[in-house]
Design goal:
Blueprint: H1 12-31, E1 39-40, E2 42-46, E3 55-60, E4 63-67, E5 73-77, E6 84-85, E7 91-94, E8 104-108, E9 114-119, E10 125-136, E11 141-151, H2 154-160, E12 172-179, E13 185-190, E14 195-196, E15 216-217, E16 232-238, E17 243-248, E18 252-257, H3 267-274, E19 283-285, E20 298-299, E21 306-307, E22 317-321, E23 332-336, E24 349-353, H4 370-373, E25 375-378, E26 390-393, E27 396-400, E28 415-418, E29 424-428, E30 433-437, E31 444-449, E32 452-453, E33 456-457, E34 460-461, E35 474-477, E36 522-523, E37 535-541, E38 545-553, E39 558-567, E40 570-576, E41 589-597, E42 600-608
Parallel strand pairs: 14-15
Antiparallel strand pairs: 1-34, 2-31, 3-4, 3-35, 4-5, 6-7, 7-8, 8-9, 10-11, 11-12, 12-13, 16-17, 17-18, 18-19, 20-21, 22-23, 23-24, 24-27, 25-26, 28-29, 29-30, 30-31, 32-33, 36-37, 37-40, 38-39, 38-41, 41-42
């Protein structure tokens, strides 16, 4: 076999162009991987037929953004710490941009007007991380709750039974505070009122730790009471049960009784009642060693190995009840960052817990202490993860982690949201990484990287320390949510101003041993686009075939069969007047049109105003 090489003379500019285009191709191929030093921001993947239709809300660098699946900005607000929509149709957020330190909150309308605001002015209360607007059924009105570190004196700590061998200057414990519309404190629950210790029998807090799971041990090994001792970072309220759940970053969340510790129109009595045994934990999950009912994480005899013991979550964030009507309703869901779990190769998890399950897997209808439910011993699904076997609570009914342990690992922040179609929306804070996964095969159906960084908006995120483009949480809302209904949701530019450029399921296919060359059908972009009254779709058929042109909305529902006939090879043009198969005008928004010719398929997007 002979190979003949023919010299070709190229000028320098042509060579530069070739090298530049080759570099772009290699760059684009590398950007789909989270492992790359260079990561393309904004929408990276979208399977429009499997996502839950709606818009994604997140806050970054002092601005809240509402975006569609392609990354088009729908609306913004000049506030952006940890925003969320309320059922009243408003946007609620903390002021200042730092989730770890927030003493003021505002409620805004669509136009950014301040409808309500509250500032914690007491010098010994330090608001941080999480808050919520709730409906208090006993009061019959909406109220506002938030987490605040409350200062303790060293003497208070010693009087409660803290180990006198430690220094307690600057000590704090978290409280949950509730205020009414007028900004008056009407209820408060404080961890310091629900403590136990076993070193000083002369104190009223003395008890057997293992027999007192409803209280927290003041003298946890290696973690004496100090500033921001529990670092609670999330809370949620269950209106039907009138219960509250609050999460500590150290690997536990706690359920407390709001309804039976709240006295209508009696703030003083309510606060006093919440400080009694009526306010003790009804349930706690995560680290039973903290109340002497399980093994703590530890290094094994071979110090190159370690075990998580009976600890289930670590560094966790965004504890919540899955809302009524959603798959898993009534269960807890939490983003377990998985710090401090002593795994050789750490990774983050989304964990769903049914707190009513006993050791037989029976739903008892009441809270069951997790150690009583027991554990399953789980092996790593793949040896390359380099993980030891671990005890997984039998109350964990679903747990998601990526196959590659670093694909969405986040050391801080983050959130997870169960969606009505069973999907779960995840926000991994470290890399400003949002993605949606389907319930059964945990397939990725949407992925987005926040382009807003410490250095401004970037099309490409380069190697930086964590949270360079961090987002604390992200939420998905349907178009009929009270905060969106009736407002202009016309897509604007993307955050970077670039046209959306992302992968679809058709782009992610296995390599075939025998590539099949298909006839070169063509599908042109509709014109005009966007359009208000009608638009023209042109296509070309390479060889005779049964042809259909179908139009779908964002949720994957077919709205119009525009073509369904046998076509000879050639060019065709069809006009769509913006009506569905029943002759009714379709609402404004984004639509897909798909050309099918036998087993060949092409698709494009269009915007109907």
């Amino acid at each position: 076999m002979k190979i003949f090489l023919f010299p070709v003379k190229l000028n320098k500019q042509i060579m530069k162009n070739i090298l530049f285009l080759a570099g772009l191709l290699l760059l684009k191929l590398s950007l789909f991987s989270q492992e790359s030093f260079l990561v393309k921001t904004e929408t990276r993947y979208w399977d429009h037929s499997r996502t839950y239709d709606g818009y994604t809300l997140f806050g970054t660098r002092g601005t809240s953004y509402l975006i569609d699946f392609e990354g088009h900005v729908i609306h913004t607000w000049n506030i952006g710490t940890n925003p969320r929509f309320t059922e009243a149709g408003t946007l609620l957020d903390a002021v200042g941009g730092n989730p770890s330190n927030q003493n003021a909150w505002k409620e805004l309308d669509w136009s950014g007007n301040v409808l309500w605001q509250y500032t914690e002015s007491r010098s010994n209360y330090h608001g941080h991380h999480d808050f919520a607007k709730i409906f208090n059924p006993k009061l019959g009105d909406s109220t506002f709750i938030y987490i605040a570190n409350k200062d303790l004196t060293a003497q208070q700590c010693l009087d409660a039974g803290c180990d006198p061998g430690n220094n307690y200057n600057g000590a704090q414990m978290d409280a949950v505070v509730e205020v009414n519309r007028q900004g008056t404190v009407i209820w408060e629950w404080w961890f310091f009122n629900h403590v136990v210790q076993d070193i000083d029998p002369t104190k009223s807090t003395y008890g057997v730790i293992a027999n007192t799971p409803g209280r927290i041990n003041l003298n946890i090994r290696g973690n004496p009471v100090k500033s921001d001792w529990l670092h609670c970072n999330a809370l949620d309220y269950n209106q039907d049960l009138d219960l509250l759940v609050v999460n500590s970053v150290h690997g536990e969340f706690y359920v407390v009784d709001h309804g039976n510790t709240f006295i209508t129109n009696d703030p003083t009595g309510s606060i006093a009642l919440a400080a009694t045994t009526a306010g003790d934990f009804l349930y706690r999950f995560g680290d039973p060693a903290k109340y002497d009912q399980g093994d703590p994480p530890s290094v094994e005899d071979n110090w190159e190995k370690a075990t998580a013991g009976n600890k289930q979550i670590g560094g966790a964030h965004d504890i919540q009840w899955i809302k009524p009507g959603l798959p898993g309703a009534g269960h807890f869901m939490v983003f377990s960052n998985a710090e401090n779990l002593f795994e050789l190769t750490p990774q983050s998890y989304i964990v769903e817990i049914n707190p009513y399950l006993n050791s037989a897997g029976t739903n008892t209808g009441h809270f069951v202490n997790p150690p009583d439910a027991g554990y399953n011993i789980i092996s790593s699904p793949d040896n390359n993860l380099m993980k030891e076997k671990k005890n997984v609570s039998k109350q964990i009914v679903w747990m998601f982690s990526s196959k590659n342990n670093t694909s969405f690992y986040s050391t801080i922040g983050s959130s997870a949201q169960r969606l009505p179609n069973g999907n779960t929306l995840v926000c991994s804070m470290n890399d400003g990484h949002f993605f949606e996964i389907a319930p059964l095969d945990t397939a990725l159906v949407w992925e987005y990287i926040n382009p807003m960084t410490r250095d401004g908006i970037k099309k490409i995120k380069t190697d930086h320390y964590p949270t360079y483009n961090g987002v604390f949480r992200a939420y998905r809302y349907a178009a009929d949510h009270p905060a969106l209904a009736g407002h202009d949701l016309t897509p604007g530019p993307t955050m970077t101003g670039s046209p959306p450029d992302y992968y679809t399921p058709d782009d992610i296919t296995a390599i075939q041993d025998q590539p099949i060359v298909e006839p070169a059908d063509k599908l042109n972009q509709n014109y005009p686009n966007p359009f208000s009254y009608g638009t023209t779709i042109e296509f070309e058929i390479a060889e005779p075939a049964g042809v259909s042109v179908l139009i779908y909305d964002l949720s994957g529902i077919r709205v119009k069969s525009l073509v369904n006939e046998f076509c000879s090879s050639g060019k065709y043009s069809r006009y769509w007047d913006g009506t569905n198969d029943n002759g009714m005008r379709v609402p404004g928004g984004m639509y897909f049109y798909i050309l099918k010719a036998d087993n060949r398929k092409l698709s494009k997007k269009m915007i109907h105003l």
